[in-house]
Amino acid sequence: MAKKAYPLRINEEILTAMQHWADDELRSLNAQIEYVLRDALRKTGRSKPRPIEPIIDPEDD
C-alpha cells in the first residue's frame, strides 16, 4: 500500500494525548494516528477489512 504525505493541523492537547497513547502502545505518533483513523473507518463501515495474509515459514519450502 502506497503512503502519501499529508500536512495536518491539529489541536495541541489532542496531539499531546495522541503522543502519550502512541508511547504507551510502542508506536510512532504517525502510526498511532493512522491506526485510530483506520479503526474509526472500519467501525463505521467506511472501509473494507484488510485481507489476512498467511504467514509463510521459509523452512516449509
From TrEMBL:
SUPFAM superfamilies: Ribbon-helix-helix (SSF47598). This is Arc family DNA binding domain-containing protein. It comes from the Bacteria. One of its GO terms (biological process) is regulation of DNA-templated transcription. InterPro entries: Arc_rbn_hlx_hlx, Ribbon_hlx_hlx.
